[in-house]
Amino acid sequence: MLFNSFIFIFGFLPVAFVAFYGLRMAGKVLGMWALTLASLMFYAWWLPSQSWILLVSILANFGIGRFIQTQREARPNAAKCVLWAGLAGNLGALFYFKYTMFFLENVNHFAGTDIVIPKILLPLGISFFTFQKIAYIVDSARGEVKKTSFSEFALFASFFPQLISGPIVHHKEIIPQFRHKLFGRLEWSNVVVGLAIFATGLFKKTVIADTIAAYFIPLYKTAAATGHVDPATGWVIAVGWTLQVYFDFSGYSDMAIGLGRIFGVRLPLNFHSPLRAASIIDYWRRWHMSLQRFILSYVFQPLALPLTRFSTTRKLKGWTEFAVTVVTPSFLTFFLLGVWHGAGWGYVVYGLLNGFYVSVNEAYRELKRRKRRRLRRAGLPAPRDPGMLRRTGYHLLTLACALTGNMFFRAESLHDGVTIFKGMWGLNGLASNPALANKVEPGFLLVLLAAASIIVFLPNTQQIMRAYRPAANWAVWKDIGWPAVRWRWRPAPIYLLYTAFALFLGVQFIQRGAEVFVYFAF
User: Fold this and answer.
1) Is 180 assigned a catalytic role?
2) Of the residues 171, 272, 288, 341, which is catalytic?
């Protein structure tokens, strides 16, 4: 079921709302089970035959987590074995459903074999709910999770606003909210704020992202078919795709946070104006923030720790130590983050590019830190902050890197990604391709200009809603981001009119046909 569909907005959502708050009056646990059941029905709507995968994941990980929590101190070896078994089961399921077909295709290609198995359908949201449960059982082993009731865990693991495409929620953010005595009591302020955030996200998705997609998809298919892309068209394609996925994922993230708030749950941020970033590291801190947070805590740190020990044992110094302890885990982490998005050589290249970008960015930051230390030891003043011209250069370089990587992210095949890449960077020559130039409609350019202007000049959703603590971790991010916030939403007639207008347009544009969210593919 799509958030941007009539059946969800006018059917599922009102029924779930009434069921949750109505049954909550008879008891908090009953209300939680009503919301859990609604969430499971929401998931089953897409492909009922695969619902068992989510149910097995919930039951198995609850049992694993409970065993680890109760036996961690009494039987540490047994708890560790169960943890490793749980990790193997979760990652094994993820690999089977997401990467088996890709793996076999490449084995057949390179080994000349003809291994054929029935097509494996990718369960909706498996990457998201698997990572969420991995974090839960690992934190249980670390002693960071208190004993959780099954009703709490079932709702935490299935809560429909974040189930399909994130954010990847952390138990310490969500479960304490379930335990609060006021959870489930109807607060109209939460409903109004949640609706305002949801309406903004729906507008981004249906009015902006889907409009861009209507122009972009025919242009992209023509470009991929011709095999010869000129620089101007290549950059239009790259900008078009980046803005489409930007507003698509930003819209989904807003809708998820808004829906959570309607049900009294503050979800964490997942998107915070990444195209305003002046470095690729900052870009990734702002794009798919919950995934980046997961990768940092459960991949980068476990990788960095043994490498740091190795460096200490070998007494590595200087840039060699930096390469081993920072660059290596950074490269591997962001390579894995790229490959997480899907099974295909385009995603492999996307991961390699971002691993390279981040490694270079880390090296540049280390170079600046060492320069500051030398100046401080010499008693000289620290370098001045970069001026407007240099900051603009940083932004443009970050955008160029992001747009280049995004074309491999979008590519339906590695050949398509290379075709667009060569065109963007003039490797096919600088002459225009008339067959493509005629496909770049003026309306498309106007839509791209309008979308880019929104990113540059207007506050984002959480900045507009900042007076109402729009997300669980908003305090960490509230002072980060351009532009300076002057426009803030409040429950006054003009802002309620804005909410109604955004919701009206968002619903009207659904009539063109509900487009699936980009991140549903992951």
Assistant:
1) no
2) 341
